[in-house]
Specification:
Layout: E1 9-15, E2 20-28, E3 34-37, E4 40-43, E5 47-49, E6 55-58, E7 64-67
Length: 70
Amino acid sequence: MQNRKKNDNISVDIIGENEIKFERPGGNAGKDPFCVYDHKRHAVGSKIINDDGTESICTADGTWKNSKNT
């Protein structure tokens, strides 16, 4: 599938079990780094909260990194 919307606005999101919650604007996919989850772009700082309580955070290099809950 081709994505023709290269300059879409992206946001910092909290991704839970069955929902994506918008947190704040995160920039533009044409010039700002982003991560992909479920075929969607998410800005740096977005979080995936897994069923077991662990979190993954979108980093500036475009990858999801595990973080420790504190």
